[in-house]
Prior knowledge:
about 375 residues; alpha+beta; five-stranded mixed sheet
Amino acid sequence: MNKKAIYKFVKKINSAKSYKDLIDITNECFIDITNAYASWIGLVNFDNNQLDLNKLKISNKLDENKFLNSEIKKIKQIMFDSYKNFEIEDINEFLDYASKKNKILKSIIYKNNTLGYIALISADSNFYKKNINTINILLEYISSKLEIISLYEERKKNIKERMEFLASVSHEFKTPLNSIIGFSDLLAEKNQDTENLKYLNNISQSSVYLMDLIKNVLDYARSEYSPMELKIEKFRPKKVISDIIWSFDEMRKEKNITFNYTLSDIIISADLIRFKQLVYNLISNALKFSKTNSSISIITYLNRKQEFIFEIKDNGDGISKKDMSKIFNFFTQVNRSQLKRQQGSGVGLALCRKILNAHGGKIFVKSKLHYGSTFWFTIPQKKSSQ
């Protein structure tokens, strides 16, 4: 028994994060532990209830042994046919019968569920007797780890299905919303001097907000199962940010909020559309949670690390310490019920982090409940251009 190889196996199996990792580690380490000529694993694919035969690991000793090569092919075919046509009890019985002398064939079982099998073969007629106890013990590690990986894979699958559903539903919302926005704007033009104008404007503004939310959900859903694609270009962030600030003028006037901003007139490289999303979401949040008759400060600059910095500070509700770690999670809202104010959707900040990760940047926050928040993000730049 190779104790060093066993220790190596236990250490490595704990680090396995996928089926492939587990198979590669097991095959490699089992050959080292037992001096087997070959090792392979078959795992059950529960989507079609068939056996997926995975990677076969062989040692140099097997190259010239035609009999053992033939035996491996025969066993692999028998096992494939067995999982396709027979009950699990019969398969386990066959494995016990065939496991002897120079072969070890064992089911991988967890909580009475057969997850597959493992096979080892050697030219040594005492191979089974020498190694069966060790293999039985190590199979416990494999079974439990395989169950953990299975749960993790199922969770990933569920997340992907949820995101695809969100993307599908959000897309269906866009068409009627565009009609609501369009017709409310047309009616507003024809009712400029009536009391209905403020109601029509409210319908249009609310619909635009909902459309922005839907776009954010679609963006986030896509980024969960495919990389976010960026179109990098050069632009002046000062003009982009100034235009976005101006677009919030009506909301600012309603709450009598003052904008104080100092924007460096530089040229940066980034995805312009994504940059606008970043700035829009952060300004929208600051206005949403700011108190009436307060102010919002914005500064931008290029730091010594050649990173573009955007910083926004409000005097609003603030965020408690226990909620700080949650705010960048998708569809997570901080608890503002006691403040009786409008709550966010839990999408904007999650999307901001996704966008910045794609740029190689980061987003930060410091806040104190009831005393406001400061958010800032960084986007790396190769060089500064004035």
